[in-house]
UniProtKB/TrEMBL annotation:
EC number per UniProt: 6.1.1.4
Stored Gene3D superfamilies: 3.10.20.590, HUPs, Isoleucyl-tRNA Synthetase, Domain 1
Record-given protein name: Leucine--tRNA ligase
Catalytic function, reaction form: tRNA(Leu) + L-leucine + ATP = L-leucyl-tRNA(Leu) + AMP + diphosphate
Domain Leucyl-tRNA synthetase editing: residue ranges: 225-413
Lineage: superkingdom: Bacteria
Listed GO CC annotations: cytosol
Entry similarity comment: Belongs to the class-I aminoacyl-tRNA synthetase family.
InterPro entries, alphabetized: aa-tRNA-synth_I_CS (IPR001412), aa-tRNA-synth_Ia (IPR002300), Leu-tRNA-ligase (IPR002302), Leu_tRNA-synth_edit (IPR025709), M/V/L/I-tRNA-synth_anticd-bd (IPR013155), Methionyl/Leucyl_tRNA_Synth (IPR015413), Rossmann-like_a/b/a_fold (IPR014729), tRNAsynth_Ia_anticodon-bd (IPR009080)
Residues that hold ATP according to the record: K591
Amino acid sequence: MSESEYDPLKIEQRWMGVWAEHPELNHARLDRAAEKKYVLVEFPYPSGAGLHVGHVWGYTMGDVTARYSRMNGYNVLFPMGWDAFGLPTENYAIKKHITPQEATAENVATFRTQMDAMGFSFDWQREINTSDPDYYRFTQWIFIQLFKKGLAVKEKMPINWCPKCKSGLANEEVTSDGLHERCGTPVEQKMLEQWVLKITEYADRLIKDLQTVDYTEDIKQQQINWIGRSEGAKFTFRVKDNKGEIEVFTTRPDTLPGATYIVLAPEHHLVPGITSSEQQEEVTRYISQAKTKTRLQRSDLQKDKTGVFTGTHVTNPLTGENMPIWVADYVLTDYGTGAIMAVPAHDERDFEFAKRYDLPIKPVIDPKDGVGDEERSTLLSGESCYVGEGTMINSGQFDGVDSVSARSAVVEHIGGVKTVTYKLRDWIFSRQRYWGEPIPMVYCSDCGWLPVPESDLPITLPPIDNLDPTEDGSSPLARVEEWVNTVCPSCGGTAKRETDTMPNWAGSSWYFLRYCDSKNENELASRQAMEYFMPVDLYIGGAEHTTLHLLYSRFWHKFLYDLGIVPTAEPYAKRRNRGLILASDGRKMSKSLGNVVNPLDEVDKVGADALRMYELFMGPFQESFPWNPSALKGVYRFLSRVWNINAGMQEASVEDTNEKILRKLHQTIQKVSLDIEDMKFNTAIAAMMEFINEVEGNNFAININDWSKFLLILAPFAPFVAEELWQLNAKSGSSFDSVHAQTWPTFDENLVVSSEVVIPVQVNGKFRSTITIPVSEVDLQEKILNMGRLAEGVKKHIAQGEIIREIYVKGKTINFVVRIPDDATTRENKQG
RNA sequence: GCCGGGAUGGUGAAAUGGUAGACACUCAGGACUUAAAAUCCUGUGCCUGAUAAAGGCGUGCGAGUUCGAGUCUCGCUCCCGGCACCA
């Protein structure tokens, strides 16, 4: 029959070439008359490894959505670019003895070729590269605005330091195991002067505005937890012998009467001043021990709290009781005030510590109902700890008060201050490496830190021979004296440039804005373009960015919104995280395990169309799946069958499409449309497979016109083969009229429903048989329930007893409730 | 410990409270072939039964609501992801 076989490599090569000559197919226009759709997928870090299967998955989801939207008449912005700055490129360049610029250009070229091979319909007219000076001049400009508003400050502080990358890191870049999220090296603490962005100033709005966006619940919760907002109060305790004051933060001011000691973090600035001479030696030893512990070791030792007594006391402002001051590393320097009031009776950590060091435990809350008598008595005797609410006891004037209302009463009474604290840390923004945006600041010994004049932007990276990082925590840029030495923009005297660079998260914090107007030389994007295209309508990316890129970019966007530069308070109207593709052994794909699947190898075997469809067909987009080569075969078979049907049709030329096929076609159009909108790509593909099965099961009785509608809905998923078959069938020849420029087919409501309805018949809720009735009869309850057409099997079950109820749910089901004598007896027994 | 998400055949998975297992993979049998691959056809949740007819069981566990529960409610167990001495 068919002389030609499905040969994906041949047709994909051909259309890749043709599409390259018609980039306008994918161009978004600044056309206010048209309705826009901004579909964004996270731009890749162009590493030496090339595109991986995870990229392909996310980009295919975006591509299907973009193509579908175009066919539905939207003016679609579906852009792509390169998140090119960062450590891996720099390390790769060092290894290969080339410059990072060369490494980047090389990798970008590879990625571009691979993306074209996958058939992604990106608007390359708007391509961006974060390491391009024309791009990063605006990244630097935003930094200067942050500085001007006091949101970028230089501070000397202990920071997370990666000894392998020889650079400081943000809190978000350290995993919960205390490792650098990029290279897996245990992170150390180091004192350095760093630029810090005050993301905490936006903490409340970053939480609150989550209500205004469509993110899945897990993303919202993860961001909320990461920001970690706690309401509480600050109290001041006066240290005895006039040794100053200690401020603590607590979320439970009501437990103040039960506070029996104070704990300072080892790094707390008051420790040296308040330590008594007898305790000096012990405290010093403890602190130096704590310093050597990494973050990982500290949290590993959770169960084993240690500390030392300083030899000094404070007075409890409520009870007048004497409270010893301890130093312990279970109290963190950088949360709250770095000091706590310990209430062992009502806090598990304090309880454990008090037990170990034999400190007094004083219960002040009598538990509410729901606590057993036994438990209550162990609590009231100080043998256990209770963190819930209840009635105040042993609390003087507050006795009998409910613990919740006691909170503000206590704060007021002793002159505390209600405070909100966050787990979120300010964003450490300096990196001591070469391959990043230079921070556009100058230091003058007379004038201090000043931004470079905006007219000098971009401050470009000077060429450099030696990229090796330094041990002392300064950037390799510090070695380029002619670049470092400059004049003060204020007094004209000698000054030095900042030699640290920005983290790789900088460029990606605003890139979606640049796509709106990527060639603009005067501003990051024109107001007009942003008003039209923003916000992003759908943003697809990886879950690993939830508390990194996603949070950072929301922060920058809100800052730009406050400056009146961007038109929306939130950058992304809808965000979906895709799952992970694992290796076939179920483990994570990694170079070291040697189990990485290279998507281009798969393209060579089965073609890009099959690879795209396989990844979408794996299952729901947010789940994780191991790589399964035999399932890939399944979609390849599907495409071959599509190919063969098309070939057969060209010969047979059917006039009228068989009714069953026609109805299935319209049902499929409807199903595929709804599923793309819901991102249920797997069931959309299943529906197209069902359609093919229907066509084959009914002797291929479909005419070319109806078949073409199927090619249209196939086009977003398998753009190459759909184009090939569309062009074969068109036969017009002369001018190129792409399948991807066609209008999405509509479905006929009357054809979507079947002519007959199959209704399940149940007896006592148990399925027994079905009856088939014409659609016109679904409303005729009497007729349906009294029909003699019931199957014998059903009648048999009904005959076992007496019908006590008949239920007909229109078009859905029939249920006969039958009382069976035996059953009735047992029921009566039960009731009796 | 806290937060979020899950648990359905041999496998990946479908199922607005209404025929559980669509679609695909795997496997078995058959066709084509000298043979294999590819392709096509048939079967494929478990149990009883004869490979039939028919029946029973079945969506992690235990209760509940309902004429009817994979789906809703309550209580558990386990798995995955995130956070974790956050006062």
